[in-house]
Amino acid sequence: MRGAVKLSFAPLATPPKGVLLVFTDENLRLGEASRRIIGPTRDLFTRASRSERFTGKSGTSLDLVAPPGLKVSRLIFLGTGKEPPKKSSDFIKLGGISMGKIPTAAKDATILADLPAGPMTPAQAADIALGATLRAYSFDRYKTKRREGEDEPVNTRIALAVADLAGARRAWKARSAVATGVTLARDLVNEPANVLYPEEFARRASALKKDGVAVEVLDAKALRRIGMNALLGVGQGSARESRVVVMRWNGKKDGGAPLAFVGKGVTFDTGGISIKPAASMEDMKGDMAGAACVVGLMHALAARGARVNAVGAIGLVENMPDGKAQRPGDIVTSMSGQTIEIINTDAEGRLVLADVLHYVNKRFKPKFMINLATLTGAIIVALGTLHAGLFSNDETLAEQLAKAGEETGERVWRMPLAPEYDKLIDSKFADVKNTGGRNAGSITAAQFLQRFVDKTPWAHLDIAGTGMGSTPSEINKSWGSGWGVRLLDRLVAENYER
What is the model's pTM? Predict the structure, then answer.
């Protein structure tokens, strides 16, 4: 268990105390500044490398305790491999690995932003800081006791020693906003459902007002008035009222159509009358990861002053089995006027999104809409936990998302949409039914959503495998990953701010 981490930047000079982390390549070369700073320990490094068979392979480390001639308590050499890091994602990953090497009991640590080829640029150093910040995250607010043998959490001060102090601080400002957005999303996903129910989720989203985001909360009465019956049907079995939260960031003075992001926010999903098996049902507290991402993204855009107009909308419901819950066979009239036959009450996320997508499209007439949802188990069968499923009616938007995914490591994989799949969700009694059965389950869910977006450029990200319980990485050890915040922030920055 790690305590709080406070990160700062410092000049590229000898640290006075604590842990010192230095980068080396597979030839055991050090940067000029690193050689100067470690000075008398260079011979010790050479001897220890031989005896420990440390070669500088990527991700490996050599740890020297209380090295003579330095005031630091530990000197850690971290290998970067044959090829030096080049891309932004390489440096973010390296920052995460660096944080993982710093002992949890360390009160002070310094990372030298220096490679064999020379000092890191401000952007590279800021990416190291981003990776370290994301790796340091933990969610332990409900733990009151430590495990046997576990040390008391220690707050750690980490200095990133850089050549260009002012430049690194400027570069960090935007990345810090993104890091805080990811942390916000992770916190929301990790919270238990008895704490984070629709009303409480809406309250936390309303805190974005302090960032300059305009926040509007629609309660159940307002939702009934505008006809969001598909969304309300999902939540009618719960003692907790449903909510829709609309967040607006206006960062572009000349106006223009906003970018729209829509998130599924099922704060707990029992499956309703079509109840889920008991095994692993506790994971369904994370069925609001799409909504969490949208909140985290809106914070990131506002905190870094993104030069765009953006709308974030989240549908917040709790899906419970109750005497008032909707039944298989019920027919509801969505806000769009389309009627929906409920075949399975556990196919609820698409009902929530159908109304919110239609609402956002008609009210804001956005440039595009991107929705995120932990929508189908079928996408996990298809893609596992390393890619999100991408469905889109627009080639440009799909390509932009794929590129942003490669750049950030939050990767997507394009899945098909075709009119032939619509036949699987045609209903005998209504305009559409909410599930087409097991075959092509993630595709028919996307086909369902497409009926509510008209001609607006749109992308659906099925994040059932990436939004919660995903494969741990160098920059995330949390069950709630905050997936999508960095992806969508990069999409906006690269394509809609320049």
Answer: 0.96
Cβ proximity of 290 and 344 under 8 Å: no
Q: Is the pLDDT of residue 426 over 80?
A: yes
Task: Look at residue 142 and tell me whether its pLDDT is greater than 90.
Answer: yes
CA dihedral of residues 203, 208, 214, 218 (deg, nearest 10): -20
- The pLDDT score that the predictor gives to residue 256 is 87
Integer Cα distance of 134 and 461 in angstroms = 22
Residue positions annotated with a catalytic role: 276, 350
Residue type, 239: A
Instruction: Look over the chain and give the mean of its residue pLDDT values, rounded to a whole number.
Output: 96
CA distance 176 to 180: 6
pLDDT at 491: 98
Total domain count, the chain? 2
**Do the domain assignments include residue 171?**
no
367-to-193, 260, 307, 429, 459 alpha-carbon distances in Å: 34, 7, 15, 34, 12
Q: What is the rounded CA–CA span in Å between residue 18 and residue 484?
A: 35
The reply to whether 374 and 407 lie within a common domain is yes
- Going by their DSSP bridges, the two strands 339-341 and 432-433 should be labelled as parallel
Contact yes or no for 159/251 (Cβ under 8 A) = no
pLDDT mean over 269-289:
98
Domain that holds residue 57: 5-165
Q: Classify each residue of 107-131 as buried b or exposed e, where b means 16 or more C-beta atoms within 10 Å of its C-beta.
A: ebbbbbbbbbeebbbbbbbbbbbbb
Chosen domain end from 165, 193, 209: 165
Q: Encoding tokens for residue 361?
A: 């499209």
Domain boundary among 111, 138, 165: 165
Q: Which helix (H) or strand (E) holds 112?
A: strand 108-112
Distance, in Å, from the CA atom of 172 to the CA atom of 131, rounded to the nearest integer, reads: 12
For the stretch 75-129, pLDDT in tens is 999 999 999 999 999 999 999 999 999 999 999 999 999 999 999 999 999 999 9
User: For residues 47, 53, 58 and 62, what is the CA-based torsion angle, rounded to 10 degrees?
Assistant: -50
Who contacts 261 (Cβ-Cβ below 8 Å, separation ≥6)? 294, 297, 298, 310, 311, 312, 313, 369, 370, 371, 372, 488
DSSP designation for 164: -
| pLDDT value for 14 | 73
What is the CATH number for 382?
3.40.630.10
The torsion angles phi and psi of 434, rounded to 5 degrees, stand at -85, 5
- Rounded Cα distance between 260 and 248, Å, is 9
d(CA 176, CA 125): 12
Diameter over CA atoms, the chain = 82
pLDDT at 264: 98
Considering the domain boundaries, does residue 343 fall inside one? yes
